[in-house]
Known about the structure:
This protein is α/β, with parallel strands linked by helices. It has helices at residues 20-38, 40-45, 48-53, 58-65, 74-83, 92-103, 116-126, 138-141, 149-157, 175-179, and strands at 7-11, 107-112, 135-137, 162-167, 183-187, 210-212. It folds into 2 domains: 7-19 and 89-222, Rossmann fold, CATH 3.40.50.1000; 22-83. α1 (20-38) packs across α5. It is elongated.
Amino acid sequence: MHSLSDTVFVFDLDDTLYSERSYELSGITAVWYKLSEINPKITKIISLDLLFKNREQWVDLILQIEPKNFTISRDLLLDNYRSHFPSIELYEDSSQLLSFLVENKAKLAMITDGRSFSQRQKLKALTIEHLFNPLQISEETGSPKPNSESYLAIESQYPNHQYLYVGDNPKKDFVTPNRLGWMTYGLKDKGNNIHPQQNDKVEQVYTPQVWLDTLIEIIPRLLP
């Protein structure tokens, strides 16, 4: 059991609080509509459904099929993808857990890898950006996981606390908080994680202390 008042709850973002696959599809959709504004001929040739079915190669597909007399750069496509305001939602279980923690005035922090603008757009779309202090984004801190700087910054801001980390990726999420003596929880892949790293074999130090089917399983551990 963890004390709410003495614990800092630290969250990963992508594929932990929401489906990163939904962000990918949202971004592809935004690019497709942007293409329809730039040159409607392109979207008559390339359907949105076709891009969804080939989402791992959607950029190359556009570059290969686009009309030869109209040049669209890879950078333009990626810039539109990364800068779009996403249509995404929290997982139901993460929404319930965050609501419980906020209602009980728990301390929340976040460590997430990615570009500053893209990650903050996601948080704004999910309406949770204001919940986390500190909010450690790798492009802003210069310290991607599993580097220890972001974890240590949270310890420095909240000394003499317990620290509970929630993530999904065994390749980078848990090794550092495990080493620092934090409690670590891993959310099992719901079947659509964009990086299915949980199927890979890793040393025990890279795995969470507890795997969860749903984040609301944490709540009973917080009750007296």
